Amino acid sequence: MSSAEQAAGPGRGEEPSPALRAQLRARRRAGDGWVETPKGRFWGLFGAAGLLLHDADRGVLLQHRVSWSAHGGTWGIPGGAIDAGETPLTGAIRECHEEAGVPQADGADIRILHTHVIDMEGWSYTTVVARALTHLEAYVNDIESVELRWVPLDEVADYPLHPGFAASWPTLRGVLEDDAHAD
User: Model pTM?
Assistant: First the structure.
């Protein structure tokens, strides 16, 4: 997911097995790869994006990251590398659909509320904040997730969050709370 995935640092987790490495290589996409910037090493040749999906009745959809990923074992949002020619919006929707089975691939069942961009001097992470327009049934759809869970807004900070998502959460929560009051 998720947020800025640095290669080194706390919570990197164990390395994937040789069989898993082969499986990951086989499903590589055009945007997969590391980028070095003055602020660190990040995943996504064209940047990365994630979808913070909100359901008014259940909260936000969080992804429990596998141990071998950057900051493994933490919780964040479904997301990943943006592909060549893809916008952060389409990348966030695609990644969430690939990892969680929601939203629809065309995004017809969500309403975009906001985008939040973290610029790392040569690489960026875009969080797309969206509201579910219908009851969405998320499920673990790939090997990058241990679990997916709808979490009420007031409980999100109680989880061990990916550091990039944790840093952005107060701003993102404000967007969701403002949207709830607009109704």
Answer: 0.85
